[in-house]
## 1
Amino acid sequence: MEIRPARPQDLDFLLEIDATIESSEYLHLDQTGEGMTVAWRIERRPMREKLIEQNPLGEDRAFAVKQIATGIDEGLLLVADHEQMPVALLAAQPDYTNSALHILDLRVDCEHRRQGLATALLYQTINHAREADLRAVRANVAANNLPGNQLLLKCGFDLSGVDTRRHSNHDVVKESATLIWYASLD
C-alpha cells in the first residue's frame, strides 16, 4: 500500500471506491431542555435493522475533489493505492476563517478496510494541518455511521457538537443526525 497525493488521472477511479456504510449500531441522541439550557446525551444502541447504505461521493463532494485534484481549489487530496489502483481517499479543504482543515470525505473500499488505511490517512491529514499552522481538523459524521465515529474517537478527535437539522428536521428520529468532531492541534 502506498499513500500519495491524488492526481487528475485518478478521478475516475476515485468515484468507483465502494464506500458502503455497514453498521448494526448507531449513536442515539437524547435531547433534554430547550433554548439555552439544551443538553444532549449520546449512547451507543443497536439499530432496528442492520444498516447497509450506499455511500456515493455525491455531486458536491465529487466537484470539490475534482477542483482539488486539478489544482483549481486549495486542499488536501490523499489516495491509498493497492496494486496501483486507488482503494482509499481523503479529501479536505482549509477553512481559514476558523483556522481548521475540514475533512470533506474519507472513504476506504470495502475490500480494504480494517488494515489501518483510514487511520493513516487521518494522521497524515493532522500532520498536514499542523504544517499549515491550522489549529484544528474538523469532520462531520452521521450518528448512524458508528464505524466512522469510532475511527475519529480512536484518532484523538473530540465530539464538539450536534447538528440535528443538516438534512431534515427529523434526523434524530431517523437516527441520522450529524456529529461534529474536532482534533485540536493547539
Note: The first helix runs from residue 11 to 14.
## 2
Amino acid sequence: MLGIPERESRRVLGHGSLPARALRVCRGTLAGLGLVLVLVTVTPVDAWWAEILEGHSYSADGDVLIVLGGDSLTDGVMGWHSYVRADNAVRNYREGGFRFIVVTGGSPSGQPVAAAMADWMRCHQVPPGNILVETASRSTRENALYTRQLIGSLPGRKVLLTSDFHMFRARRVFSKLGVETLPQPIPDVSKRASYRTGRWSAFVDLVTESVKIGYYWARDWI
C-alpha cells in the first residue's frame, strides 16, 4: 500500500481491522454458546448448581411450616413453583406434626398466589383454621418481613419450605430479619434436571436466582 509500511498495512487490513475483530467476537460468542449448550444438555450441571443453592441440612418436622409462594398465571392459577411447594407442604403437614402452615405471597394483580396455594391445601384436607395466609408481599424479602409479623405469637420450631434453588437466598433473608428457620428445600430444579426436556427451564431459573442473590447481597439483605 502506497505510503504505508507493510506492517501497518497488515494491521489495517488484517487482524486489527474492525471486520476482523467483529468476526473474532462472533466466533468467541458462538463457541461460548456451544459450550453452554453442551453443559446444560449433556452434563448434570443443573443438578450440581441446585445442590449448592439447596444446602445440605434438612428438617422434616416442626411446629410452624412457612411456605413461600412462587409464580402464578394471569388468572390466579398457581404456576409450577407454587404448585410443587403447595403439594409438598400438604405432605409435610401430614407427616411432620406441624400445627400451622403459613403461606406467604401476593400478586401484582388478580388473586394472590398465597390464596390459591391455601385453597389447594384446604382441598387436600388441611384444616382451614390451621392455615395462615399473607398476601401483601411481592418479593422474598417482603415474604420474610410480613411473615415475621404474622408468626410473632406462634410458639415452636419454624420450618421454611421453598424450592431447592430458592433456599439459599430465602433462608438468609429470614435470618437477616431475625426469623430463624430450619430448612426444608423441595425438589424443583433437581427434579426437572433429571429430564432432558426440563433442563433449559431449570438452567434459566438457576441463572435468574443467582442474579437475585447478587442483588440481595449488594443490598445487604442476605
Note: Strands lie at 64-68, 100-104, 131-134, 158-163, 182-186.
## 3
Amino acid sequence: MSTVFRSLLRLVGLTSDPASPANGDVWWRTDTARAHVSDGSIGLPVTLGPPANVPVVRSSAWHTLPGHNASGSMVMPDGRLFALPVWTGRSATLTGVAVNVTTSLLAANIRMGLYASDGVLPTTLISDYGTVSAGTTGMRQITGLSTPLRPVLYYFVVARQGGIGVLSMTSRGIGDPIIANTSSVLDTVQNAYYTDSISGTLPATFGSIAGAINGPSASIQLT
C-alpha cells in the first residue's frame, strides 16, 4: 500500500528584487505578478514565463498593437469586430485606447473594448469602452479608463459601426504568432481574429471566430 504525499511550494512575495540573490533563488514579485529566478549573474533576474507581445510596460506610455513593422492603411467594413491580442509581460492597468483614422467617414463611429480569453481565443466581455466619431482623421482615443490586466492573454477589440462609404485606419502589415488560421495560407498577414454583424454595444461573448485577417493597428496606454 503506497502513500501519496503532496506539498505546496509557495514563493516568498516581494515588491522589489533581493539585493544579492544567490544562484537558484526564486521569488514572486507581488507588484508585477511575475516569478523570477537568479542565475548567479549580475543584473536583471531571469523572468519565468513568456515575455508576451507587450514584454515591457512603460508606465503611462502608449504601446502599439501589433508591436512593430511599417504603418499602412486598411479599409474597415461596417460591423466587423477585430480582436487584437494583448498579453502584457507583467500586471498593469489599461488607462487608454486609441486608433488612427486615415480616411474619415461622417455618421460612422468606432467602438472599442476588451475581452478575456481562454488562453487561445477571445471569450467573455470585460469592458465596452464605448464609441468615438470617425468623422475626422487622426488619432481617435478613449482615456480615463482603469482596467486591471494580469499577465495573461486578452483581446483588444475595435469595430466600425454605421456610415455609408469608405472608412480606413492605420494598420501594420505583420502577422502575430498568437493568431492562427484554419488553413495553411502563407501570403496573408494575420494579426487579428474577427467576427461580423456587430452593431450597438459589444456582445457578452465574442462568439465564433469568422477568420484570421489583417486588422487595424491600435495603441493602448498602460500604467
Note: Residues 13-48 form one domain.
## 4
Amino acid sequence: MRMTLLALMLLALTTAPAFAAPAKTKPPASAAPTSDKALVDKAATYLQGLKSAQASFSQTDPHGAVTSGTFSLQRPGKARFAYDPPTGLTVVADGVDVDVYDAKLKTFNQYPLKQTPLALLLASDVHFDKTAVAASVSRERGGFSITLRDAAKKTQGQLTLKFMETPFALAGWTVVDPQGGKTVVTLSNLKSGVALAADLFELRDPHPRAFKP
C-alpha cells in the first residue's frame, strides 16, 4: 500500500480535529510546564514568522518505505509536497483545501485544510495554547521537539514537531496515527524568505471525470 505522509494523516483525521494526545494518556489541563515554556514560545514565534520556505524532505512511512521530494511553504494557508520519481505523488494546500494527486494511479482527492495537520503550520496565527496545545517538550541533541494535543480532546493520534537550535529552524515532524503507525519526515537545506510562484500552490485534476446526471 502506498502510504504517504499526507495521505496517511488525511485518511486518519479527515473527520476530526487535527491534533491529539496518544489514546492511553491523560495530558495535563494546562500547556507545557513553565520550564519548557520558553522553548514552546520560541517555536511558535518562529513558525509565526516563517512566511515562506522551501526544503528537501525525506519521509519514512509506517512500513519503512522511504520517499523524498521538495517541500514548499507560503503562509498563511499554502504548501506543496512534490515527491521525486517514481513516486508520482503531488500534494498541495491552496489555502482552503488539500489536493492529493497520484500520477501512477491517476487519482485526485481533496480534503478540507482545516481538518488536516497542515493547518498548524499554515495558520495565520500560530499559538500552542488554543486548538493545538503543547503536551510535552523533549530536549534532544542539537534541538528539541514538541508533542501536540488537541485542546478539545476529541481525537486520537499524535503530532510531534522537531526543531534544531543552530541555526534555529523546523527540522521535521512525526505523525503517529490512531492505529500506532508512525510517519517521520525530515527536512534538509531549508531556506526561508524565498520567492515562490503563485501557481506552485495550484493543483487541478488532470483527468476530470465527466458529470453524468
Note: The first strand starts at residue 52 and ends at 60.
